[in-house]
Backbone:
């Protein structure tokens, strides 16, 4: 048994090997020569764990930074949206016959990506973010850029987490019927992609399955939570009103298959809501 320590000498795990076998598959005692090898394994494992912890802490600080900038982007809100998204994805994937090991491999990256869905708001002026009333047309157009800013943060995707975070940030305000934003844009310039400019110069919205799956899932999770919870600028809607709106927007704002799955697991959704209550 070898302790795994980080660079500060703190124990972050234990590597234990039992039942050594010889070439005949017979259980034998470990040799003294085995200990340095196991210590090297423990060192490499500890370094990998510490790097993963550092990455996760950096991500959590990004989430906290977004919360500091935008009073609507509370900790409970992002936790609920992330938990809703993961449960919706798992139920959807099982319906599609996706293997459990593949589902499990996507869960954590999706959870973190969903928590960062509005991280692009760090690039939006406080005059807009903290405005107590409704936006005028110019302010609304500037606010919509948070989707592009968020995706740009993960433009140089080097991991599944980067890929999903860009996908969610860019697409969580798209609509199934094509009337969402930002549409088919180049995230480096915020201009429409070639062939996707409307007559008014804006990008055509993504429609149906043009919208990546995780964007469609977080779109529903985000709207459900935003309507269900009190904010400084509005009271919470009652559950029946929220449910009726989601039904009305099925096939308009939301992917019908995602809506079906959402209602299949509505009890799970309610339990998540209770697990992460708003701070009052």
Residues:
């Amino acid at each position: 048994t070898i302790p795994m320590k980080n660079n500060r000498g703190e124990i972050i795990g234990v590597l234990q090997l039992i039942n050594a076998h010889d070439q005949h598959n017979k259980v034998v005692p470990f040799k003294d020569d085995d200990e340095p090898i196991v210590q090297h394994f423990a060192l490499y494992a500890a370094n990998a764990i510490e790097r993963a912890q550092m990455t996760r802490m950096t991500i959590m600080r990004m989430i906290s930074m977004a919360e500091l900038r935008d009073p609507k982007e509370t900790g409970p809100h992002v936790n609920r949206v992330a938990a809703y998204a993961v449960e919706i994805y798992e139920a959807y994937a099982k319906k599609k016959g996706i293997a459990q090991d593949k589902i499990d491999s996507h869960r954590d990256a999706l959870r973190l990506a969903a928590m960062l869905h509005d991280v692009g708001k760090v690039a939006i002026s406080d005059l807009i973010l903290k405005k107590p009333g409704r936006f005028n047309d110019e302010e609304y157009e500037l606010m919509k850029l948070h989707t592009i800013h968020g995706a740009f943060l993960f433009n140089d995707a080097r991991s599944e987490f980067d890929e999903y975070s860009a996908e969610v940030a860019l697409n969580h305000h798209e609509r199934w019927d094509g009337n969402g934003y930002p549409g088919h844009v180049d995230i480096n310039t915020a201009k429409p992609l070639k062939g996707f400019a409307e007559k008014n110069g804006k990008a055509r919205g993504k429609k149906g399955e043009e919208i990546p799956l995780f964007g469609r899932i977080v779109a529903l999770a985000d709207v459900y939570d935003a309507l269900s919870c009190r904010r400084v600028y509005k009271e919470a809607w009652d559950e029946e009103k929220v449910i009726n709106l989601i039904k009305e927007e099925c096939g308009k704002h939301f992917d019908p298959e995602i809506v079906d799955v959402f209602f299949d697991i509505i009890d799970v959704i309610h339990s998540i809501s209770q697990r992460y209550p708003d701070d009052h």
Residues 68 and 74 are 9 Å apart (CA to CA). The chain has two domains: 1-69, 71-275. The beta strands are 2-5, 11-15, 20-21, 27-28, 185-186, 191-192. The domain at 71-275 is CATH 1.10.3210.10 (Hypothetical protein af1432).
